[in-house]
Specification:
Length: about 200
């Protein structure tokens, strides 16, 4: 859930109404024209007279954004946060992990963080692959004494997975007083949602 704005795609003298979605890995364009441009390909980013311009994949892109153009140029030029930064463990904060991490990207993101008991951790990461694991999670968190540390729940994403998705996770966690505060894509069929424990946990 990144930056979003209405814009006009200017190409060969034509202006086409589009919506820009700047995500962690790409700029997605929808509406009158569609495109997905990887952030890793952005080159020569600039803005002038309300228009953002940049190169990617050998093509030149121009989007009319009005007063928001300079802010968008800055956002396009800013490197996307790493997964460790998104999870809040970029500086080696202590971590407790429940379950087997499903992707090497997640393992790498946590590689600099010391593994500790849940009640000592600055961040808790819990993987839910089944409905049973999800339903038992709130009780496990209470039993482990997780009171203030944010809890990242790694869950399924999309239809090509049997793991519980964000809707199922939200229903269970909210029913036990947890509040979802942030979402982060992990990759493939996995995503993660951050929850704050109940005030009286």
């Amino acid at each position: 859930m990144g930056r979003q704005a209405k814009a006009f795609w200017i190409d060969a003298g034509e202006r086409t109404a589009v919506t820009l979605h700047l995500e962690s890995d790409a700029l997605e364009v929808s509406g009158g024209r569609r495109a997905k441009v990887p952030r890793s390909e952005f080159r020569h980013i600039g803005s002038a007279d309300g228009v953002v311009e940049f190169e990617a994949g050998g093509d030149r892109f121009r989007f009319e954004l009005g007063d928001a153009a300079s802010a968008w140029a800055k956002a396009l030029a800013t490197p996307a946060p790493t997964l460790a930064e998104k999870l809040g463990v970029a500086h080696g904060e202590t971590v407790a992990v429940r379950g087997e991490l499903p992707m090497i990207e997640l393992t790498d993101a946590l590689s600099d963080s010391a593994r500790v008991a849940p009640w000592e951790a600055a961040v808790v990461v819990a993987v839910v692959r089944t409905e049973t694991e999800l339903v038992s999670l709130p009780g496990w968190l209470r039993e482990c004494g997780v009171g203030v540390a944010p809890v990242w729940i790694v869950h399924g994403r999309g239809r090509a997975t049997s793991a519980p998705g964000d809707t199922a996770v939200r229903a269970v966690m909210r029913a036990h007083g947890f509040h979802d505060t942030k979402v982060s894509a992990i990759g493939g069929t996995w995503s993660a949602t951050r929850y704050s424990p109940p005030k009286n946990a």
